[in-house]
Design brief:
- This protein has 420 residues and is mainly alpha-helical.
- The protein folds into 4 domains: 113 residues, no CATH class; 72 residues, no CATH class; 86 residues; 109 residues, no CATH class.
- 56% of the residues lie in helices and 3% in strands.
- The strands form 2 sheets. A two-stranded parallel sheet has the order 1-2.
- Helix 8 packs across helix 9.
- It is globular, with a radius of gyration of 27 Å.
Length: 420
């Protein structure tokens, strides 16, 4: 940063040259001394007639948390030592150490990519792809084909970058033309089925599970298995509530300890109210393909019993008569004053999910006597309470389908059980 500023402003260049000449030891000292002598003091020579923007791109790639531990407090707390016309634009994946250092500073404005309008992101990705592929001679790229790539990106620059690398032939077999690689990318069932994207995902996961530690990998597979096996994304709080009801022992893994490192591939990491799900469908496809993800492979079938059991347990524990504390049962839901806030207050996200999807989770399991017992007890004791919640959530139509799924599951399981 000091060198770039010196190249722009003669006064900064002279001040920096004097600092290096007089204090040659700065190249070997700590970063705090470098900050003060190479940036703060020369900044007295910054022009004041226009704004100055310092860009730090991809801070997460500066090293590991240990190598950043002295830099982050400087950026968080001492950036205000620079002149008032200086601004710093910092981009990064939402890694845990970076978020901890920056989130509590009132002078820092934080923006997540999820806050940017989809139309704006699509426009930027289109411009990026168009620029990157404009010089590819053996590729015909009109607006329609460009739109195909933009749609496949699903708003993710990560995919756009890897896609451009793939089409241009970076690391690809030279037997194929750029046109053929374009066709392969846009015609494949999986938008992210490229060696480059797999390599990128593998690199990210290696950071989360270093040294091939089996305990780390098992924790990762357990937590991500739960995330991927859900029929609808849930927030961290709801995921944790459901996980506490697992009966296989996998609840010993703390969800946040795994997910907090995955902000580059999952949404909802920085805001615990936002549902957690893959930023791009290609990450789901990668993890559920054993040939691609190898040791990180997620076998969703291994998590079905836990989710079936847990969703039933959530309902058995939380369902109750008049769950929203309504003063009268003679009013239509539409006539109840302030009903939406009451639903939000008394019906948790985990209960809402369980009421809507428990039958689907049960139907996806093989016969299990424990689950069968839980289903029977739930239907005998809390069926009407379940219907009440479905009514409040305007989801009564789910009831018939859910019961049908359970009847089919029980019938098939009965035949299998009697056969054996």
């Amino acid at each position: 940063m000091a060198r770039d500023l010196a190249g722009q402003y003669p006064g900064v260049k002279r001040s920096l040259a004097n600092a290096i000449r007089e204090r040659n030891w700065l190249k070997r000292t700590d970063i705090i001394q470098q900050w003060e002598n190479l940036l703060v003091k020369p900044s007295a020579h910054f022009p004041i007639d226009h704004p100055i923007l310092l860009v730090i791109d991809a801070l997460d790639e500066s090293g590991d948390p240990e190598s950043r531990k002295h830099l982050l407090p400087i950026l968080a707390n001492r950036s205000i030592e620079l002149p008032s016309n200086v601004r710093i634009l910092l981009t990064s994946r939402p890694l845990d150490d970076i978020l901890r250092a920056l989130r509590s500073c009132v002078h820092i404005l934080s923006k997540a990519i999820g806050d940017i309008p989809e139309s704006s992101i699509a426009h930027d990705i289109k411009s990026y792809i168009s620029e990157r592929l404009a010089s590819v001679d053996d590729l015909f790229l009109d607006d329609n084909r460009l739109g195909l790539l933009v749609n496949r990106s699903e708003g993710l620059f990560q995919w756009a970058f890897v896609a451009c690398e793939f089409i241009q032939g970076s690391g690809s077999r030279k037997l194929f033309t750029s046109e053929q690689r374009f066709q392969q990318l846009t015609n494949s069932a999986t938008s992210g089925a490229t060696p480059s994207l797999d390599k990128l995902y593998n690199t990210i996961l290696q950071e989360i599970c270093p040294d091939n530690n089996e305990d780390d990998i098992q924790a990762f597979q357990s937590v991500m298995g739960q995330v991927l096996a859900l029929y609808e994304p849930l927030s961290l709080g709801a995921l944790t509530a459901i996980r506490k009801q697992f009966h296989s022992g996998f609840d010993v893994y703390d969800i946040n300890s795994v997910l907090k490192h995955m902000g580059s591939v999952l949404s909802g990491i920085t805001n615990h109210l936002i549902p957690i799900c893959p930023l791009h469908s290609s990450f789901h496809d990668y993890l559920t393909d054993s040939k691609r993800s190898k040791k990180f492979y997620i076998d969703i079938s291994l998590h079905r019993n836990d989710l079936a059991f847990a969703t039933i347990q959530i309902m058995k524990k939380e369902l109750q008569f008049n769950i929203c504390r309504l003063e009268s049962s003679y009013l239509l839901n539409s006539d109840v004053p302030n009903l939406p806030p009451k639903i939000k207050q008394f019906i948790s996200s985990s209960l809402s999910y369980s009421c809507r999807y428990w039958a689907s989770h049960v139907q996806a399991t093989l016969f299990n006597s424990k689950i069968a017992t839980q289903v029977r007890e739930f239907l005998n004791e809390q069926f009407l309470y379940w219907m009440e919640v479905l009514s409040l959530m305007k989801s009564v139509q789910i009831a018939a389908h859910s019961v049908s799924l359970i009847i089919t599951w029980a019938t098939v399981c009965l035949h299998i059980y009697n056969y054996y």
